[in-house]
Amino acid sequence: MRALMLASLDGDAAAYRSLLDELGRHLRPYFVRRLTPAFAPHADDLVQETLLAIHTRRMTYDRTRPFTAWLHAVAHHKFVDHVRRQSIRLTVPLEDDAPIFAHDDNADALARHDLDVVLETVPPRTGDLIRRTRLDGASIAEAAAANHMSETAAKVSIHRGMKALVARFAGGPK
């Protein structure tokens, strides 16, 4: 391809036509490999855009450098422009994120400490009921039985405790 490019830069029209034909055959698989199956039909558009860019910028080619490096740079820029236009974003399935995101035990400890501090502002029994029902997932009946009280009394205590916490920490009514 380099010889054809050099000949076309010297004015050989036949070499230029041959170069464009060969580039078309080379670029299509280049783009198809880089596109997802949903965007594979865009490969021909990318080939045309790249050929047009090569045509308009062919005088910027440095004759002392490899032609394919210059060609792939132009093709890569056209591919990046296409990805940006299509707003294609790479995604990582959530089940594949384990190596990316480490579990921060320190954050859990800080959150537990903050919850303990907040729940200390209500009566101990109310704090225990809120912790069991809202944080640990226990039912009202289970929390009431653990605190030796009726379900109705537990509901009232939880409601009043939550209302007090909201008033204190969220700026709501007291």
UniProtKB/TrEMBL annotation:
<feature type="domain" description="RNA polymerase sigma-70 region 2">
    <location>
        <begin position="31"/>
        <end position="87"/>
    </location>
</feature>
<dbReference type="GO" id="GO:0006352">
    <property type="term" value="P:DNA-templated transcription initiation"/>
</dbReference>
<dbReference type="InterPro" id="IPR039425">
    <property type="entry name" value="RNA_pol_sigma-70-like"/>
</dbReference>
<dbReference type="Pfam" id="PF08281">
    <property type="entry name" value="Sigma70_r4_2"/>
</dbReference>
<keyword id="KW-0805">Transcription regulation</keyword>
<keyword id="KW-0731">Sigma factor</keyword>
<dbReference type="InterPro" id="IPR014284">
    <property type="entry name" value="RNA_pol_sigma-70_dom"/>
</dbReference>
<keyword id="KW-0238">DNA-binding</keyword>
<dbReference type="InterPro" id="IPR013325">
    <property type="entry name" value="RNA_pol_sigma_r2"/>
</dbReference>
<feature type="domain" description="RNA polymerase sigma factor 70 region 4 type 2">
    <location>
        <begin position="114"/>
        <end position="165"/>
    </location>
</feature>
<dbReference type="InterPro" id="IPR013249">
    <property type="entry name" value="RNA_pol_sigma70_r4_t2"/>
</dbReference>
<dbReference type="GO" id="GO:0003677">
    <property type="term" value="F:DNA binding"/>
</dbReference>
<keyword id="KW-0804">Transcription</keyword>
<dbReference type="InterPro" id="IPR007627">
    <property type="entry name" value="RNA_pol_sigma70_r2"/>
</dbReference>
<dbReference type="InterPro" id="IPR013324">
    <property type="entry name" value="RNA_pol_sigma_r3/r4-like"/>
</dbReference>
<dbReference type="GO" id="GO:0016987">
    <property type="term" value="F:sigma factor activity"/>
</dbReference>
<dbReference type="Pfam" id="PF04542">
    <property type="entry name" value="Sigma70_r2"/>
</dbReference>
<comment type="similarity">
    <text>Belongs to the sigma-70 factor family. ECF subfamily.</text>
</comment>
<protein>
    <submittedName>
        <fullName>RNA polymerase sigma70</fullName>
    </submittedName>
</protein>
<dbReference type="InterPro" id="IPR036388">
    <property type="entry name" value="WH-like_DNA-bd_sf"/>
</dbReference>
